[in-house]
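Appendix B, Record 12. Input sequence as logged:
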Amino acid sequence: MDSPRSSPRPSTLRELRHSGWNSKPVKQEIRDNFLRMLSQREELFPGIIGYENTVIPEINIALIAGHDMLFLGEKGQAKSRLMRSLVRFLDDEVPYVDLPDCPVHEDPFRPITKAAKEMLARLPEEEVPIAWWKRRERYAERLAPGTKFADIIGEIDPAKLAAGTRLSAEDALHFGLIPRMHRAIFAMNELPELDELVQVGLFNILEERDVQIRGYPIQFDLDVLILFSANPATYNRSGKVIPQLKDRIGSVVHTHYPLERDQGVQIMEQESAIDLDGQFPVVVPYFMKQIVEEISVAARRSKFIDQQSGVSARFSIANYRTMVASARQRAAVLSERPAVPRISDLGHIYSSSLGKLELDLMGTHQMSERQVVDAIVAEAVKSVFEEYVDQHGLESISDVFAKGVKIEVGDMLPSAAYAQRLKRVPAVWDKAFEVNAAGDAAVRASCLEFVLAGLYATERISRSQTHGRITYEL
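Logged structural output:
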């Protein structure tokens, strides 16, 4: 990076010039840092999972090409996170002319405002003060709905006019967010919701890099990387985004949901950020993590869900947190350690699921959202169960229920109670516990519920539910 190596940092223009610091456009600054990190095999996008061979190569090429970018994808596909991650390719800090009331952080060697140019012409270099703009401050983000022209581009400032400033003078302008992010990164979320007037105002900024406010062509050579995000359903809808604006966006980066369930599990664990230790530690069997993620996968292909709206990764994250919380509550009440989530804990995910799914009114056939959640949970359990449990031997397990055996389970039932139930059919369940062989009673209880739910999902046994307790029988 081109920050000066001398210490202390230059505080005047003369010191800066002698320090060897080089002025670069922001896109060149990003490209140089990116290529350096790429050549040194540094991690480019920490925390981004599942995009290594799809999305990230598109971003890499766009950064090298110096393009403004649109991140196009459904909700919960890390679009905002990707945009924010580009900040790491900026220099640690860059110098600017420390001019009070200047609306932009002026490049000391390439000023764009009248005030900065006049100051540099008037003062000797040893009297021009230099300050430093930190990397984390060089990113601004705005949500499109409700955004006005004055917010991101600018407007005539009535207060300055009242003070006697001429209408045609640069000093009469109020600068919006984009001009203020000169030499930085600006991101606009949900581009299709941006007012048409503002979209038109972006034409010049994206192409000519100047600002036009109320007909005054203020010739600023703006230096900014502009990013957008959008959902395909609205971005591709006719009339939502003006074609000329689409034409000016350099690269479109298509995001997607995890292509493999295990990637989704990794994202879910990472983003949930749950401390599984503490006074009541939690041990989550891997098949329970898979079921929670499979619920989202099943929702994304369900005919009951409006697929244009998507099913966010936040759906899995919220359900995972709810499941762990239910297990931890049981541990606190029953003094069990560790707490191990079970299928019955998924009975509480209505609170974290309802409202996150957009129902397809044509496909649901008057089903309630709760019924839709039940359907996709059952499908998820079936999918994971069939992968885990060898079909050989399941018929003998079903035969036990044919002899009148009933097994009751529940989210607040002690794990020891499951052990008592297993004593009635010890030999048969040895086969079932191949899904997660363990001597711990709480883990075995979770395994038992998994197998019971799987037998029910594959229509081998029946189930009745009363006041939080579930009874399985043939």
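The CA atoms of residues 281 and 338 lie 5 Å apart.
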